[in-house]
Amino acid sequence: MSWGRVAIPAQVDSVPRTEAATSQHRAATSQHRLATSQHRAATSQHRAATSQHRVATSQNRLATSQHRAATSQNRAATSQHRLATSQHRAATSQHRAATSQHRVATSQHRLATSQNRAATSQHRVATSQHRLGGRQARHVRLHVTQQLLQLVQHCQRGQGGTEREKQGRGGPVSAGGPSRTSSQLTHRLLTGYSRVTHGLLPGY
């Protein structure tokens, strides 16, 4: 009994594509986590700068009120007016510094938000590719399983015919006969299927 070569479908080429999509998905996930961490850090800095800006604004308003009150009492309390003016200038400087820090933190927050959005987009694309590769791999495994089951059934039918012929002739079959060939071919088919499903065969 002669046997032909086992036909492996061309769709098995999608197995390394699944591994590549998984690697891209992991890389995009790492980038996404890094961008999220940077975004959280920038958000914390932005909140701290906002708090400082609010405190400085309150101090500036208070100093402004004191400056106006001191101005109205300038004729009677020139020294108090000078002190309030100094406090107003200091509060104004703090307000300007806090405003600058707030602007920087806002810029960093916007940059981190953009990076987070880009990483999220890459993560979504990699996830879609990963899901597509998984579906293709399942389709390939199902197709290979069906072909191997058909070949195994064909081998079993061949072994059954050999037994009937052996009984009809009334004599034993030699050790290297069709039954041993069928068993060897079945073993090789199952071994090949295991290697294909684990991506061990070259070219798959």
From TrEMBL:
Record field: compositional bias (Polar residues): 20-130
Region Disordered, residue ranges: 1-136, 156-184
UniProt name for this protein: Uncharacterized protein
Organism: Corvus moneduloides (New Caledonian crow)
Taxonomic lineage from the root: Eukaryota, Metazoa, Chordata, Craniata, Vertebrata
